[in-house]
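Consider the following assembly input.
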Amino acid sequence: MSDIRQTAAQMAAALAAGEVTSVQLTQAALDRIAAVDGQVHAFLHVDAAGALEQAAASDARRAGGTALSPLDGVPIAVKDALTTTGMPTTCGSKILEGWVPPYDATVVRRLREAGLPILGKTNMDEFAMGSSTEHSAYGPTRNPWDLDRIPGGSGGGSAAAVAAYEAPLAIGTDTGGSIRQPGAVTGTVGVKPTYGGVSRYGLVALANSLDQAGPVTRTVLDSAMLHDVIGGHDPLDSTSIDQEWPSFADAAREGAGGDLSGVKVGVITELSGEGWQPGVMTRFQESVDLMVKAGAEVVEVSCPSFVHAMAAYYLILPAEASSNLAKFDAMRYGLRVWPEGDAPSAEEVMRATRDAGFGDEVKRRIILGTYALSSGYYDAYYGQAQKVRTLISRDFEAAFEQVDVLVSPTAPTTAFKLGEKLDDPLAMYLNDLATIPANLAGVPGISLPNGLAAEDGLPSGLQILAPALADDRLYRIGAALETLHEREWGGPLLAQAPALVEQTEGETR
Amino acid sequence: MPDSAARVEITRDEVAHLAMLARIDLSDAELDHLAPQLTVILESVASIQGVAGDDVPPTSHALPLTNVFRNDVVTPGLTPEQALSGAPEVEQQRFSVPRILGDEQ
């Protein structure tokens, strides 16, 4: 018997016990996608036949007494920023519409090698530029808690798929918060690993020095199990960390008792105050109190350079993005648009293609990046931003001399209405205020469901940050806090989400 | 704040120039739309000037990197068919591209 509301760990246990088949789990997920994705629009592409074939192969393995990994047979959704053979990879952009890559990203290859059937590709802001998924060229994803609101971004598709029970697991990518902020506003769990902890090979680069793929799930243990599958050294990524990692699933299981004795927690002074929704802050303070009750020692820690993180980020990211996106030139793959006129040149074709293929936000950031890198401005903007990056890393170092982990709300507000900030880029950028410092310093972070804000009844998130390489702390402490929360809530936060109306085939919204 | 308080602005002409450098054929309407938005963003990020002194080294990568070499052995790559599979146009097992020289060249 398959139940789409089970956690991935429960599904894995049921598979191991022979109580359910991977085909049943995968079919149940596909049925749910068919029933609700017309409203949610978490997926850009669903590969029902491929997923069922992989599921049948998994069942055959299990019947033969072998499994490739604990998650063998548990279906998963993958953000459309990672290359996949046999499935299109568009990055939410018209410039890559219909492109089927000739190779798998390392993360995708590892999913296949671990036996996870891939359900399809999830929606995202074009080239991961955005905090609401509204910048997808294929239309926005909607928040399962309230279909008139944003699911966060850029990985709103992955977060919404998991929150709407369309998939037990998903892969996201996080350059400035694109895993964690969607997690916060959809009441799900999202992890940005240490930079270099998960291979970037086949992850279409937004900003190479900041990008990191990671788990998107409903529980901390599920994220840990998925991290164990996708993480580890990859010779195909020159920035991949060459070391052995501990079992994150073990760390999550250790923490699940809910005991935080001896854990030193720092609350970041700079991530509160004006612009922070009162209901989000109230829930955050309650969680801090909960940690104290469970034995944690909590102190306030100042990270004075964090106030400059957003400015540094919106110089470094556009600079790297403008360079990375130069490869979309209409010559080797992707869109080619011929401008009017006789025999246009390659350069004219390039310009016409990039105008037609890129959306507003991508154009804004490419222009901004081109500006920041141009001679005369380089030292004043990009050079300064790189120095601020050093200051932010120093703040983290000083903080982690005093405490084991840092905490803050994941995002300043709950989910806003679709369209509300679409034409105000700066207001949109402020959503990533709390998540950006981790990317600039390369440290790992997790966002956990943190209760509903009183004023709107929507989910808020709590972020835990650990020193580089100490991802296991996120899982140990995250699992403990999850246990404490669920005792208070009487179950997972997602159980409080309004049920989506399932639609049968042929119905339209 | 030192010089950073000076007003920053990206003019419509500058946006047009940057768009040319970035090989994006922006329409007049897009230029009208983008220039003021970029000015607002730039005003915001300009606060970064003067934050870090000369003694602060820049960071280009979060974690220290050393150069990485791989063993000099042949590994399988893409076949020509795979490499060309996404091409807008293919001719004689090659990428076919628009003319690359101008009329005057």
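The CA atoms of residues 326 and 366 of chain A lie 9 Å apart. Ask yourself how this observation constrains the way the partners meet.
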